[in-house]
Amino acid sequence: MEPVGAKIAVVGAGAVGTSIAYAALIRGVARTVALMDVNEAKVQAQVLDLQHGLEYVPRARVIGGADPQICADADVVVFTAGAKQNPGQSRLELAEATIALTRTALPPIVEAAPNARFVMVTNPVDVVTYAALKFTGLPRTQLFGSGTVLDSSRLRFLLSEHCGVAVQNVHAYIAGEHGDSEIPLWSSATVGGVPLLDWTPLPGRAPLDRAAREGIRDEVVGSAYRIIEGKGATNYAIGLAAARITEAVLGDEHRVLPVSSLVDDDALGFGDVCLSLPTVVAAGGALQRLPIAMSESEAAGLCDSARTLREMQRRFGL
């Protein structure tokens, strides 16, 4: 029987792509999960492995192949294909090879699934998202990047550990680049409804002073490098994060997520760059950005992050 319901397509059957597919199946995100990869043998093996676990997840089917038509009629396409990040290598150093791959690989997928919402996950995600918009001509709402959704989750986890509360009670965002110039938005963060900058430590806990915040920020920025050095790739958390973005689209949730989308005006002091800000994500894709409060230093840091990304765009002729 052909399943009735949403379909997601994941492009790239590597560690990240298969983690997204796995997370989507476990969370019951869609009735059809399609994997696409140019390596036919690999993608078929991944599909078979996932199919063998279908008894234990909400009802779904898994399909896969090397032909972009496997993505036809997808509601959401998650693009993970790209060069692998090596130990010690920055995300921005991956740009040239990944942009070239995106230029050739993405347009046939858009042709197969023209009405899908496209979520770019490949690093460096902000520059790749900008390039993908140029290559496809899709609107900024329809094609956007995973941005700092994962970085914000890392930040919330570290704050919860420091403060001694559940991570679900921490609300804080990372903005700007998904990378070294990203900015924690401390001035709008809360812990259990208490403004983070007014947080009083619980008994036995260290204060959340400037030094502690700077240490947490450094841990967020450096965590991917440490994971890659230890096991070669980050995959589980980004799998969950991308599945969560997909849920927000398919469920028309109007959930606020810091995805990376095109800033096409100068209202923030910069424009013509893709970066992350808290954004309403729903069936229409990445909708309006929230006018979140920032301190002067945070706003300046966001502008610096935008300049970093624009310089990289120019370097690759975008």
TrEMBL record:
It catalyses: (S)-lactate + NAD(+) = pyruvate + NADH + H(+). The active site is at H178. Substrate binds at Q85, R91, N123, P124, V125, D126, D151, S152, S153, R154, T234. The keyword Cell membrane does not apply. Allosterically activated by fructose 1,6-bisphosphate (FBP). Its EC number is 1.1.1.27. GO terms for molecular function: L-lactate dehydrogenase (NAD+) activity. This is L-lactate dehydrogenase. The lineage of its organism: Bacteria, Bacillati, Actinomycetota, Actinomycetes, Mycobacteriales. The gene is ldh.
